[in-house]
Amino acid sequence: MESKKERFKNSLHALAQSGKFIPGIYNYCDRWYERCTMTSRCLTFNHEQAMKEDATDPETNDLSNEKFWESLHLSFQVTFELLEEDAKRFGIDLNNLSDVEIKKSEIKPVEKLAKKYSSKILRWLQANNELLTAKAEQLLLINNNDEPAFKFADAWEVVQWYSVFISAKVHRAHFDLEERLQEEKDEYNVYSDNLGSAKIALIAIDRTISALSAMYSTMPEKEDDYLKFLALLSQIKKQMLETFPSAMDFKRPGFDD
User: Fold this and answer.
1) C-alpha torsion 108→110→113→118, nearest 10
2) DSSP per-residue codes, 210-233
3) pTM score, two decimals?
């Protein structure tokens, strides 16, 4: 009988070899599947859906349940085994690699700013949750249609979604940046990962600025807070564009082709 691990591995192999998916499309997206128009071309999304359908035990989808973490561990285990198999085809033994000195990278000012924004916006969203909910309900009552309330709720959701995402992508954009820029020949085009990460960070910043501006126009009583967040995001965007002036020219697989 096929084990859960073998089923997981075979499912991933079958999907990867189907030819339906765009290679690397999941690397520079925002992982917001509910709003993505490219999920049918994304291997990561389809494999996650296949595993959910295969999971007959609802406890495997419950973050607070041990079975969820067992399932996640299995996912990592299978992924590493697949990496080992690919490495062997190139003559690389991942269990017998020479020691490499890992340099501790310097945290850039823009990374600190992005982390500061994430920390502050998360605390603000939590502290003002009741007020935001009341505002959405008020908009439903005072208007003849649902559109203003839906627009406010949508903007609120956008701010929530990108609250941590921006900081994570700004950090990834700076990973090994100096070393990659100093390489005379980027044989594996690794610098493209910095550019792709910078681009999706900038896209998330622009979407958040638009969302916060929409919330501000509906909720002017929190003017000082909104202006502080908008100023922070503007600083982050400016510094990112100074470091990655060509980031928006980067072609993300599937999205910008």
Assistant:
1) -100
2) HHHHHHHHH-GGGHHHHHHHHHHH
3) 0.83
